[in-house]
Amino acid sequence: MSKDKVIRMEHGAGGEPMQALIRDLILNNITNKSAGPVGLDDLDDGATINIANTMDGSKKCDEIVITTDSHVIKPPFFPDSNIGRLAVSGTVNDLAVMGAAPLALTCAIVVPEGFELESFEKIIKSMNAAAEEVGVPIIAGDTKTVERNGLDSIIINTTGIGIAGDVIRDSGLCPGDKIILTGTIGDHGISLLAHREGFDFSTDLVSDVAPLWNMIRAVIPIRNVEGKPAISAMKDPTRGGLAGALNEMAQKSGTGIIIHQRDLPIKESVSSACEMLGIDPLEVANEGKAIICVKAEHAEEALSIIRNHKYGRDAAIIGEATDGHSGKVLMKTIIGSMRYVDIPTGDLIPRIC
């Protein structure tokens, strides 16, 4: 960070520059960073707020989980979706991967002068449809307009409040856990890039944007014989893609992760586009996928439940956690060799979430 005198696009891309910005300039300058067991220092998908125990102290109450996110996408409309659906889905998913049922959302919108009312209404309707899909109300909001030369497109911030019985941390991965990816990778980033740049890959690439709570809630109740949750960790691989999310999970949990290239679900159209553009699909953002880590004995049961949902039909077990290679992610390639999967360092595809 000492070399950087200004904010660059890489600082918002989900890789090492963004982590350094958060660590060095944000966390170091905020003193009170926790209202519960999970706070700002944990850099999870959200944070928790303590609720007082019941009067007799015999039972601990559920945890309130809160998350917030700002969405800046160019263009705001892209194949099969738009910024409104993405804003609601992204916030719902951040709650879901912490095991929290979404209770309510708030929304703040900054829109430039000259933005078409018809487009604005389409965005609002998309937000409503995504919220209705998981039964969460949008209960408060704010709208601001700025001069047309002060902003080139719409910006949406959404904050979500949820409640969880057992909060799931992205740092909970344990050696032996199996890693489930709920669908194909790279769909959102590649479809938006192709649309924005006018690339013609002779195929119908569409974004995977989706609210995942109804799918995730079905696997949360799985328990072992001792009554403990089968899920050890979850995360949605948005900025930084699968590579960024897995590296965060490995570093926070102190485990190694080995994934198998042959088991990675990826559409042929996405794979071909990545090869043509020189892009690693593991680093491409997704907006409708989750990484779900479960105890090995429950992996097949969880996979079956996930595949039963429309957003999980392409789910696969892609690897496992190990007690070797602490904090590192490795991939066994199709030819049998092993290579490190590094955390992304640049802004692969700017302004896509």
TrEMBL record:
Residues 59-164 form the PurM-like N-terminal domain. SUPFAM superfamilies: PurM C-terminal domain-like, PurM N-terminal domain-like. Gene3D superfamilies: PurM-like C-terminal domain (3.90.650.10), PurM-like, N-terminal domain (3.30.1330.10). Residues 175-330 form the PurM-like C-terminal domain. GO terms for biological process: protein maturation. Belongs to the HypE family. This is Hydrogenase expression/formation protein HypE.
